[in-house]
Amino acid sequence: MKPTFLIIPSLAVLAVAAVCLTNRAWPADKSLQLGAAALGKPLNIKFKAVDGQEVELSKLQGKVVLLDFWATWCGPCRAELPRVKEVYEKLHAKGFEIVGISFDKSKATLQSFVAKENMPWPQYFDGQYWDNKIGRKYGIESIPTMWLVDKKGHLREMDAREKLAELVEKLLAEG
Prior knowledge:
single chain; alpha/beta; Glutaredoxin; 7 strands
């Protein structure tokens, strides 16, 4: 194989990597991130949602809460939405809540999408894209990311995408 045939695919890979890096903010200072260190501990999340409602995670104790880190422009996030809505509709009455943490740039786009998709749960929005304050605090480096908080307010699961319904039902069954 001629060396020139290896250069073209290598350049393509480098071009894709460059695009990804320029569309993605540099990660926050790791010393400020909680991420995996927060597992098993209470999370201190408090904000005013785009609909004006005050959200304080500690006030949701007694419920199982999905923290859904997502964005309207994220294809995989949008692909997950039907399943997330299905679990919400099935388990909301049993004590399941969702709190959306949006990485969107446009509040209007977020509000329009939430209304169109009938997403009744609160949405955090600061318009900072990858510099999202809550995302940076907890070291979120990719979306969708789904965390589950138990009835005591402790972070119990940091990868809830694959078995969301099963994990929520398990946490709801705990005393």
